[in-house]
Design brief:
Length: 212
Amino acid sequence: MMFETNDDGGGGRPDSSESSNRRGMGASLPPSSAARRFLLAVALLLGLVVASRAHAYETPLRLNEVARAYTLGVGEVRCASAAEWQADPYSSFRWGYTNVRADYTVLPPLICEGALNVADDDVPAWQRALGTLVLVHEAFHLRHWRFRRDEGKVECQAIVYFTDAAQKLGANEAEADNLYPYALAWHRWQTQRFSWYRDRTCVIPPWIPPVP
């Protein structure tokens, strides 16, 4: 399932009990210069750890180049490792999410693998189609337009531009057309199950079977 979050990526404000504990620990230390230097070193170390975790995601060039064709140059697409996705508080959204405040998208390994290998027959066709569809969906959440928070409008754009995106990712026209039914099936399943993904004004391109 694809969702967006308004979280700014900086984490929540510590609660009062945590703040009190911090003040209590600080008050119990002797006000010596050695103690102050020790606390400063610990704070710097923690800051480096947090910073390294915040930038640990991969940002594949190809995914970002394709996404920016639809975001009009806005934002960043990040691919999480299995461990990073498992530790991500928003991984319950399953297929990825977009932070609309900080303009970045995070995708799980299954989605990134599908989108990055769209022309590779060793990767299941449904995974390649889903990876492409999710990438375009989240790209339209990143795009600064009036419907960026409207799941129905965003999903409509994802299915409309699906074959175009598949070709931008490396598939040829025939491969993109062959993946399209999988994208249509996912789109149909999602819009029937979750009403907020429906856009009654969406004109979905028909699938044209290949002529033998």
